[in-house]
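Sample intake sheet
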Amino acid sequence: MTERYSKMFMTKEAYDRLIRLCKDAFPAEACGVLACGMAEEVDDDPSGAACVIDAVIPIRNAHDRPDRSFSFDPAEWTAAYYDMQINRQNLVGLFHSHPRSEAVPSISDAEGFLPAFALSYWIVSLQNKEAPHVQPYRRSQGAFIPLELVIA
């Protein structure tokens, strides 16, 4: 889905939830998935429609060093995916926070990224907790390409 888009659209409510979840997890990395349940017409989108992310679903960080990395709790990931199917939501992306660094993919982010080109990859930097920086990316030919975030 995100392969052909240069922008990602998110509701204000979903954006606020994303920031709150990441701040609440501090100093550990928060992680989870992003979903949408509706398509809207977008004038400058070549396909004519884009998903507006309206669901931020946290998944427990099961990494043995949650202050430095993340990994989805398998049971929570399975439950979240099942719930998305029941609620007719589309999985759009994965998110995690960087409690002390910029919203730039790290080496471990690149190594751990799922090879699903249709998913977007979101990093929330809490380097400045008063003004978090949210940066969505798409993966193309091994590189993370920044996307513009639009609050819809």
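Comment: The chain has three helices and ten strands. The first strand starts at residue 7 and ends at 10.
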